[in-house]
Amino acid sequence: MKGGAGKDSNNATTTVVAHHIKECRILKDFLNLKNVKLGYHYLITYLLSVLLIPLVPVILLKGAEMNLKDLHQICNYLRYNIVSIIICSAILAFGATLYIMTRPRPVYLVDYACYLPPPHLQAPYSKFVRHSKLTGIFDESTLEFKFKILERSGLGDETYLPESLHCIPPQPSMAAAREESEKVMFGALDNLFANTAVNPSDVGILVVNCSVFDPTPSLSSMIVNKYKLRENINSYNLGGMGCSAGVIAIDLAKDLLHTHPKTYALVVSTENITQSCYFGTKKSMLIPNCLFRIGGAAILLSNKGADRRRGKYKLVHVVRTHCGSDDKAFRCVHQEQDNTGMVGVSLSKDLIAIAGGALKANITTLGPLVLPISEQLLFFATFVISKLIDTKIKPYIPDFKLAFDHFCMHAGGRAVIDELEKKLQLLPEHVEASRMTLHRFGNTSSSSIWYELAYTEAKGRICKGNRVLQIAFGSGFKCNSLVWEALQYIKSSPLGPWEGCINRYPVQIAAA
Taking every annotated instance into account, which residue ranges of this chain make up the domain Beta-ketoacyl-[acyl-carrier-protein] synthase III C-terminal (predicted)? Predict the structure, then answer.
């Protein structure tokens, strides 16, 4: 028996050692594969430089062999062909002047500010549960569904709801909705003007986006009135365009800056929770109640050359994708009435799949603009092989981590962030800003990508030359993206939304 036990022990030890060796070999192969790909990327990226290096000593040797007679011959050639040289120089000068005059003016992000609500508007889980029960509006089944969604949402205990929704019963009046919008927009704008020292009268373009609240006078008019903006301001108010409307607003402001020289453009992105809260029992319309929270951002853009020195970022690309021609995509986020006449926003069960398809369409357009040539060659090669040789081969998913240093993915919910992480093959650190923004502020709609950028800045992670990708989804269905390039090492602006709490993050979020 003892001998048998010893033999079993030796076999077990051998098995463990063999398993350990196998794991080490797999890890080594993985690391080698990673190094091979990295080496390939650098080789392709710097291929032209590698090929030109041997030419340098050849040119230097030829130059060393030249004497005074050779120089004299060159001077004579230039003297007798002076007309050709003048014509060529004139053509080059004309071409350079035409290019400089017709190229789009660079658009700089001078600064931005996110609204931080006061502490008394916080809606921790316990308070949300207690108030939902005390309203007497929801039955047990509805309450159980809401609490289950909230537990899996990824939201923390420090998110905010507007004043009217803290009342029992809630008071979603027009006056309360106006008050919420004013506090959010004016709070963000006050901080922005204080941080940039820009006079509101210098702003020539104003773009405001808010999906579900569209009062008369408009939100943009409320800002014009509050800050006494000039009479000839180009003012726009975007409504009903969902959580991706912030990117659309930036795109509109960019186009206007290309046609109006030496001016500032002000973009305000917000959403109104007071008017969008649903008080019925339809489950697909209850989900937004659990995810959306109060928030907003104000962004100052400029096309002035002098603002390059103090600006934070330069706008590199805007890519917009609209899938509204597809009926499923069109209806997956839909404002409607339930059977009792209560108005709310219904979210389809196909939302995540539709978002994934919209993302694929967007990055297919974005990829050639930003990906290094090494990734484009791999994608093209696998595409050709799949079409001509092996139809079963999976398409190559480009490594967007080689194109961007930071990612700000719309914090629409835990499932949305998970899908983005999976589709783009990102690491946990790349979606940290999105998850922490969802935990700290909830889904603040179109402004969420700015809370995420503020998080990355507060962590001191953005250096000069870094590229930032912002992606947002919206009803319709839309997927829009922005690419920014940092003009300097970016420090967090005063009065930022993460001021005083950034050291507590990242936090561990419980599994769904």
Answer: 405-485
| Interatomic CA distance for residues 250 and 108, integer angstroms | 11
Task: Choose, from 209, 362, 443, 480, the residue flagged as catalytic.
Answer: 443
CA dihedral 432, 434, 439, 443 (to 10 degrees): 180
Which one of 430, 439, 479, 480 is the catalytic residue? 439
Return all residues near 332 (Cβ < 8 A) that are at least 6 apart: 347, 348, 350, 351, 354, 475, 477
Q: Catalytic annotation on 258?
A: no
Give the pLDDT confidence of 309-365 residue by residue, as tens digits.
999 999 999 999 999 999 999 999 999 998 888 888 999 989 999 999 999 899 888
Set 243, 277, 290, 479: catalytic member = 243
Give the DSSP per-residue string, 221-288: HHHHHHHT--TT-EEEEE-S-GGGHHHHHHHHHHHHHHHS-S-EEEEEEE--HHHH---S--HHHHHH
The pLDDT tens digits of the residues spanning 178-234 come to 999 999 999 999 999 999 999 999 999 999 999 999 999 999 999 999 999 999 999
